């Protein structure tokens, strides 16, 4: 069966701000409390979606989530009217108020793990919302993520959306950011590669010492079970704990795969040779040859990969069989990476084009092109069955740009989160958005 990959980018929400909430994510920590520009952030994201859609790539979006999260604030003892809740939280717990306001659902690579119908036992596309329980500001996203996914992928004949795994450290799950699918072509059975940072129950497995490992082996195995994946086409690989300690908080900061290609840093995995061996064996079962594109430390040190987000790129298959690498501007600014990329596209390999975007607003919180998108490979029948209002078109792009211009602020500082007017603005913006996307009731 033929299938096409859609990238569902997160539409940046109107409360995008820099709160330094993600310990282990270097960019988030270094930009804490600087002023953000939500309008520019949303426009940068929309420009990427528009350009990729115009190039013929499958492109859609996932809506932002309702903010602030009053349920969180009330559940921890802030009472009264909404305005009273906000002012008490701003006074007594400003960091938790920032958590309640975070626009982090924009990084939809963390919304869910997705297995296309070609891989699952029941022939449906499976989604498991990620519990993101390592970080307070992200631990509630799964409720609205599951809801949005169910609204878009409603047809149970084709789609199954699973609730998040239990929100406890043993099942720490960060979704597609730690999951890569390798295959001959998108519509044929593939190999699903789960990369985990630690194991809850294997005391012998190495673990990072400085920063948290957000994904557990147990969570990855649970997702594979829920999706009905076959054991011989599922591979579990441990991420190198040393690179987690250097700021590689998700596997998609050090590796990206597409079709039969795996673009990765030599230090990405705890056991590189073992990982490649397992992958080659599993891919043999689906008639695919692994194209391993290894980046050596001598060419690009881990620190440069983290600073540039080289691997947080999108690797997209083009009609001519070649691939384009979608990178952030920062890749041109880090010398080793710029030189590496020049050689890569000139080298005659499968990657023959670079497409770059200015995503600085998101990058300052540690979110590059690949963080901003959730991949879903769909057959024609499945693509026709999903909600069409989120598919990116020129018309939707212009509608959303006008919506952003109307509702978004161009400057947000930490103190602004105490302003009750901001909550009203966000609410009004999202109310209108649900109508524009044809998803009434999304925020009820
Ligand atoms: O979870 N940053 C996000 C970035 C997620 C990137 N996603 C992928 N690699 N797929 C995170 O660390 C920062 C929010 C703040 O500090 O205000 C934040 O949540």
From TrEMBL:
Write down the chemical reaction(s) this protein catalyses. N(2)-succinyl-L-arginine + 2 H2O + 2 H(+) = N(2)-succinyl-L-ornithine + 2 NH4(+) + CO2
State the similarity comment. Belongs to the succinylarginine dihydrolase family.
Question: Which pathway does it serve?
Answer: Amino-acid degradation; L-arginine degradation via AST pathway; L-glutamate and succinate from L-arginine: step 2/5
Keywords, A to Z, come to: Arginine metabolism, Hydrolase
Record-linked Pfam families: AstB (PF04996)
Record-given protein name: N-succinylarginine dihydrolase
Relate the protein's function as given in its record: Catalyzes the hydrolysis of N(2)-succinylarginine into N(2)-succinylornithine, ammonia and CO(2).
Q: Name one GO molecular function term.
A: N-succinylarginine dihydrolase activity
Q: How does it assemble?
A: Homodimer.
